[in-house]
Amino acid sequence: MKNIEMSKDGNILTLKVDLSQEFGESKSGKSITIASTEGNISVPDDEDIKIGLNIYRKK
User: Fold this and answer.
1) Which residue from 17, 29, 21 is spatially nearest to 53, judged by alpha carbons?
2) Mean pLDDT for the stretch of residues 31-57
3) Which three-class secondary structure string do you get for 37-58?
4) Which of 12, 14, 17, 38 has its CA 20 to 30 A from that of 47?
5) What is the pLDDT of residues 21-33, one digit of tens each?
6) Where are the domains of the chain?
């Protein structure tokens, strides 16, 4: 994961992202990546639930 912190409290999933960070251009070159799970991953403490997240801004 890049720039994403996840925590689970009961049935509540909390994501924390620093929106001031950047990780360069996307593969297409149309946007700048701010955060990514880099594919689908399991939610903490629950292998059956998956999350796939990309946060970006226009170039």
Assistant:
1) 17
2) 96
3) CCCCEEECCEEEEEECCEEEEE
4) 17
5) 999 998 889 999 9
6) 4-58
Environment class of 9 (CB within 10 Å of its CB; exposed 0-12, middle 13-18, buried 19+): exposed
Assign residue 30 a region (left: φ > 0; alpha: ψ between -120 and 50; beta: otherwise): alpha
With CA atoms as reference, report the closest residue to 52 among 31, 37, 42.
37
Q: What is the pTM of this model?
A: 0.86
Taking the C-alpha atoms of residue 28 and residue 9, their distance in angstroms, rounded to an integer, is: 36
In whole angstroms, give the CA distance from residue 32 to residue 14: 23
